Amino acid sequence: MEKKSHLDKKLARLAAVQAIFQAHHRQQPLKDVMKEFEQQEFSMVLDVMAVSNLSRPFFETLLVGLDQKIHEINEIITRHLSDDWTFERIDSVSRALLQVGLYELLYHPETPAIVVISEYSDMAHAFFDASDASFVNGLLNRVARSARPDDFDLLPQNG
Question: What is the span of the domain harbouring residue 129?
């Protein structure tokens, strides 16, 4: 049952990132995109077999929560950018990964920070080359270590 739950959430995360990307790209309200995803049975993102494994409640939790906290999340992203970068310069896929990932990291402490970082970093590697994916990983990691330092206390130290 544990593996199914992990797959359920992994697919919900992917669908949430796709929905955020689509809402931004189309300049539509997120609630409209959510409704479209559900009406189309997520077929625009996942094959039929995967849809049956997707956690719809977790998908909705991520998007409804993010929709409520989007300005706060975007401010956090902006604060963690180097001086020569702006929020607008972040490509829309990376932005969606960061937005959903940071929402889960900050508002779902039941998921260990290292799991959140790993899940969204894995998605970034599926979309990008190593340098672009490391941007997502690095920003998530910096915020996680600041916001949830206890999650890292038990990890072995490098060096």
Answer: 2-149
3-class DSSP state of 97 = helix
- Per-residue model confidence as pLDDT tens digits over 100-147: 999 999 999 999 999 999 999 999 999 888 888 899 999 999 999 999
Contacts of residue 51, defined as CB under 8 A and 6 or more positions apart, other chains included, come to: 11, 41, 42, 43
Nearest CA-CA partner of 111 in 74, 147, 156: 147
pTM reported for the whole predicted model: 0.85
- Please name the residues in contact with 153: beta carbons below 8 A apart, sequence gap of 6 or more: none
In a domain, 142, yes or no: yes
What is the C-alpha separation between 78 and 70, in angstroms, rounded? 12
Domain count, the chain: 1
**Can you tell me the distance from the alpha carbon of 139 to that of 124, in angstroms, rounded to the nearest whole number?**
12
Domain with residue 112: its CATH number is 1.10.940.10
Q: Is residue 155 part of a domain?
A: no
